[in-house]
Structure prediction request, 273 residues.
Amino acid sequence: MSGRVVPGPDAPAHPAYEQLRAVTAAASVVLAENPSPMTLDGTNSWILRAPGQAGCVVVDPGPEDPTHLDRLAACGPVELVLLTHRHLDHTEAARSFAERVGAPVRALDPTLTLGAEGLGAGERLAAAGLDLRVLVTPGHTDDSLCLVVDDDGSVLTGDTVLGYGTTVLGDYGGALTDYLDSLRRLADLPDGTTLLPGHGPDLPDARETAEYYLRHREERLDQVRAALRELGPDPAPRQVVEIVYADVDQTLWPAADQSVAAQLDHLRRVGPE
Prediction:
């Protein structure tokens, strides 16, 4: 099984709130109506099942929104709920939804699980007729993961790689160093692996997108290095933001502060050049 779904003339396009939209032979998406500067159009909840299977896997049930959760439950029976990382726009409804549909919850962070163990790097999951592979990809958070659907030629990336724009780095030591390694793992996926993100539209090639993200991060690091030559070796993150992110809407500068802190931490770890 492989390949993208060719949508019919009446198929919804992204964004289409609370409508089930088929993307690949095994993956469909329901977009929660929770748009914001941080969630873009809203949170994508993914429904995975092999063709002909009754049961499904729900990835990232999203917010406690009755309309959204009713739509997800209608896709059942649900065999398993999976979480790509801890942020509430992905996990807020996980426990209540799982209890409603009678399914366990699994995640890399064991505190998010329900009726099951935490996930491990490289672990394979057999559910809804699919073989899912856990790819640990920290950076956005320290518990971020991607799910590779090998028999569908797709990868669910959570917030590690988005459908447009770039992701905010985590506020823990080593976040950017981790993130660059995670992007390299995604760049090793086969050509034409469909990218199914936690926010934004699906993209046709995860490897190509990860390589673009890597180039973007290296360009930002070069800009930070240039700012350090102007500001000195130990500036506050906001001083760097005012130079490097001068063209970004200032309402997003607090998020940029976090990314710059991660960039400065990375440069201290690997050296400025």
